[in-house]
UniProtKB/TrEMBL annotation:
This is Mitochondrial F1-F0 ATP synthase subunit F of fungi-domain-containing protein. The chain crosses the membrane at residues 65-84. It comes from Suillus placidus. The keyword Flavoprotein does not apply. Coiled coil: none annotated. It comes from the Eukaryota.
Length: 95
């Protein structure tokens, strides 16, 4: 196996200074001890859930689900559009 192929395949999962192509292709198990030590220190078990999760998780999912942000966004856009329309049509036309 070519060294560049090994480097490309393991580039995303193995840190480059721990698993060099010469260590991986030499065949000796004792030279893999830095790699084994590195992976033995990583946390085990399922990944913890990430808090936050964005706007959907905060406002529309779970026990605090509410349509209030959507209603306020629609009202805000309506108010903004009305203000622009008022400035266009009523500001320069006397009654």
């Amino acid at each position: 196996m070519y060294a560049s192929l090994v480097r490309r395949q393991l580039g995303g999962i193995v840190p480059p200074k721990i698993a060099t192509p010469s260590i991986l292709t030499s065949g000796s198990g004792s030279s893999l001890t830095p790699l084994v030590n590195f992976y033995s220190k990583l946390p085990k078990g399922p990944a913890s859930t990430v808090s936050g999760g964005g706007i959907k998780a905060r406002y529309f999912s779970g026990k605090n689900a509410s349509a209030a942000p959507l209603v306020w966004t629609i009202l805000g856009l309506f108010t903004f559009g009305y203000a622009i329309d008022y400035q266009k049509h009523h500001k320069n036309h006397p009654h």
